[in-house]
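Sorry to interrupt, but I need a hand with the structure work. Could you write out one complete protein record for me, on any chain you like? Could you add the entry underneath, on a fresh line?
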Amino acid sequence: MERTPDGTPVGVDDPYAVAGVCDHLTDDGRCRFALTRAGDDPEFAADRRRDGYACHVGADGKWRACPHYRSTTDGRECYRCGLSEVRLAHDDARPLVEEHHLSYGDAESSSLDTDDAESPSPDTDGAGPHEITVALCRWCHTKVHKSFARIDDDASPDPEAVAARESRRSKEQSESAFEAASERFDREE
């Protein structure tokens, strides 16, 4: 199983099997990295410019081959148990759903376990590891890092997580409730 730089498990053997499309891929199949950040990798940007900025791996989905691949979550629901986020405006409480790294873009080398024969081989094209994240609720996040729980386990939300979500929903509903002026004035008299 993949591990963080600190050695805790991330809950998946192959992050690329879970990863989505590249954050830099535009709707029309072009590479946004080459379009907007050409100065960061001029050679890569020049290659993409020669191809009309087309993503060189998007059609195949072989994301490992791209040196600038990144797949970060914008999900507001836990990937493992399905708990949905409820955020309250002007409340700085800790979120219910957090970003969980499956792979780190700044890691020195791939952290695949070498004794797992099923694991894919490390990159040989020099692309290196990429940043890959999914959304996990705080409770699943802890289970994944502190045990052998996997992100693709068939899991239900923790009862404490459901209670926290419902508490936020009731607070949200009470704050957004409509109260007619006539009702407000009747109470004040």
